[in-house]
């Protein structure tokens, strides 16, 4: 997560044109940070694992084919074997208020999804999260309704796996040209290079500086270091980020306006989801 989330507000104050209510271009692919989708709100409601997968993954992934018009959705998770040791320090700090529980690798998942405080304890455990990821990977490709030309890429351990329909049958293909990476939130840059027009679905503030730095890197490479648009040898990839709306200090002081539908207004080039959404365009 971002060290100081207030910098996004400062960034918006300096560059308001980067934040819009609508997707600024038609993305060929959508990258979804699955690590964030693993979480669910604090609730006492009882969910079966089928309910959980539908709520957190199936319905969420499906909408990108249906409403965004993307041909490919990439669902990425942390590969703990390749995650930098420094991340463990952040995770320990984030979980220190949660009583730890021991979950053995050979233990099966409980019959239903834990709820309330028990869920917080379980989802803070890496072994438990790995079991859920395995269940999602096993079931999700079979639950999605693929149209011709649509595919799902799951980027977890080892090489990413692409799923699609061929002659009416679900087939999978290992993308051996893509090397294993650790953290989910750094995996999207290679798909920007692959698909050129990419939407990133992530509330993690780190996605914004990662996208900006990657854009600068591409621009520098495509201009052979001059950074002059006239020297571009190719069009750099375009990235827009779908995320929760960031309000500047001035916006927080204004009374909020409700849209005709009764929902709070949205903006986009950075996209900010859930009750409010915004798109940030890193081009």
Topology:
Layout: H1 6-14, E1 19-20, E2 29-33, H2 34-37, H3 49-68, E3 72-76, H4 85-95, H5 116-123, H6 126-143, E4 151-155, E5 161-166, E6 169-174, H7 188-195, E7 197-201, H8 207-222, E8 238-243, H9 249-253, E9 270-271, E10 278-282
Parallel strand pairs: 2-3, 2-7, 3-4, 7-8, 8-9
Antiparallel strand pairs: 1-10, 4-5, 5-6, 8-10
Protein model, in words:
The chain has 283 residues and is of the alpha/beta class. The chain has one domain. Helix content is 35%, strand content 17%. It contains nine helices and ten strands. Strands 1, 2, 3, 4, 5, 6, 7, 8, 9 and 10 form a ten-stranded mixed β-sheet that branches. The longest helix is centred in the first third of the chain and has 20 residues. The radius of gyration is 20 Å and the shape is globular. The two termini are 23 Å apart. About 7% of the residues have low confidence.
Structure described in brief:
This protein is α/β, with parallel strands linked by helices and 283 residues long. The chain is built from nine helices and ten strands.
* Helix-strand sequence: HEEHHEHHHEEEHEHEHEE
Instruction: Find the count of extended strands (DSSP E, 2+ residues).
Output: 10
Q: What fraction strand?
A: 15-25%
Shape: globular
Biggest sheet details: 10 strands, mixed
On the 0-100 scale, what is the average pLDDT?
82
Calculate the terminal CA-CA distance, rounded to whole Å. 23 Å
Helix count equals 9
- Give the structural class: alpha/beta
| Helicity level | 25-40%
Number of separate structural domains? 1
Low-pLDDT segments, ≥5 res: 258-278
The whole-angstrom Rg is 20 Å
